[in-house]
Structures are given as C-alpha cells and as structure tokens.
Amino acid sequence: MVKMSIGAAFSETFAFLRANWMQMLIWVGGAMLVVGLLGYLLLGSTFSALAMAPNDPTIMMGAFGKIGLFALIASVILYAACMLIWRGGLHPGEAPNFGWALQAGPAFAFGMLVVFIAAYIVIFIVMLVFGLIFGAALGGLGGFGGGGMNAGAVGGGAMVIGAILYIALIVFMLWVQGRFIVAGPVMADRLTRNPITGLSESWKLTQASQWSIVGFYLLFTILMLVYGFVVGMIFGAILGGLAGGSVGMAIVAMLISAAVIYLPILMLSFSMPVGVYRALGARSSSDVFA
User: Fold this and answer.
1) CA-based nearest residue to 165, from 212, 222, 123
2) For a Cys-Cys bond, which of 92, 208, 273, 279 suits 1, CB 3.0-4.6 Å?
C-alpha cells in the first residue's frame, strides 16, 4: 500500500479537475436539468394543491409520497452522473455506460448510507455509555455530605470530557469518511455495481494513509468553507445591488451566485475522491489524465 501525502492528494485533485471540468459541467448540468424538469412535472401541481388546501391530510399525504418519489429519482440521476464523471475521468475516451451508471450510482449511495448508519449507531452507544457513567457518578456523590462541591467538580469534569468527546466524535466521522472515500472511484475504475467491492477495497487502500486522508479531508473542507464564505460575501453584495428589488434580477443573481459559489465546490467535491485514489497510487497519472 502506498503512503499518501496531503500535497499529492491536492495535486491529483486539481489535475483531475483540470482534465475533466468540461465533462463535469456536461454531466452535472444535464443531471440538474433533468432533475429540474422532473421536479416541475412531478411536484408542480402538488405544491399548487397544497397552497389551495394546506390543511387537507389527504393532499398532504399524497404530497409527501410524491416528494419522496422525486427525491429517490433525483438521487439516482445525480449519483449516476457522479459515476459517469469518475468513469470518464479514469478511462478517457470510453463511451458513457448509462446502464451501469444508473445501477452503480444508487448502489454506491446505499452502501455509504449503511456505513454512516453504522457509524451513528456507534456514536449513539458511546454517548449513552458516557451519559450513564457520569449520571451515576453525579447521583452517587449527591448522597454524601458535602456532595454539592464534589458534584460540581464532577459536573465540571464532565463538561470538559464532553467537549473532548465531541471533538473525538467529529474526528471519528472524518476517519470513517476517509476510510471509504475512494469507494466510488474503485467502483468506477472496475466498472462494478457491487458497493461491497468499493467499500472493501477503499478500506484496504486507505489503511496506510488513513490519518493523512483525515488531515486532507479536514483541510479541504475548511478551504471550501472559506471560499464559499468569502466569495458569497463579495458576490452577494455586488449582485444584491444589481438586483435593485427586481424579482427577475434577483433570480438571475441567485443563478449567478450558484454558478460562481456552489458549482466550483461541487466540481472539487467530485474531484477529491479521485485525487485521493490517484495519490494512493491506484493508477499512473499518464493513464488517468491523458
């Protein structure tokens, strides 16, 4: 297994973005267009009916059903687009395999959902044990003389340990994300629909570099948040002034803001897993970004 460096991960991430930005725009733009059209067809009349009869339980139940169906369809389309981006970037010149992508994308999403449900169950158990231990400690000290002072000391200690535990849980979630970060690229590279293959291979590939990946993921997330905040402040002020109270201009301003702020973040988010995959030595740069 190759030991990954954070610098190599950044380098490979931006290399993938430079080589595939047009493909990303096509697939993401196409997916968003299809999702938007389906949303209009499936939900347009539903929201109109809700507005006319907001307290009708029958209409509300029907609306929830349609919204759930739309969310499922939208997820399939977006994850399929994600798989097409990864496959096309890892194997340039290959014809798009829509049938595989429409199956592999949702399978990958389901696999990651199971992983994070398991992670949250672990977190819940840890928090429950923590609460029981300190609850018992506080209750026991309350029964002794001078217990108020002791209980206060234990309570203060519990707050400190609680803060440490909270940070540890964040690190744990970053670690889980890091261990399975290349599951999608593995599935795309091997043209498999089996999420277990992606998850198991990601676990193996990230074994030697797991904390480097956590550091890269944390640094990457901070940089994206800073970018979104700074650019959002700048463009928000400029476009807000240009809108001048006009509804039409306000919509245009929102679209421009989304394109300038969120689209680059989305494209970098698509590039990051492949950047880590490449930095782990899964494939030579000439093979991937030719």
Assistant:
1) 123
2) 208
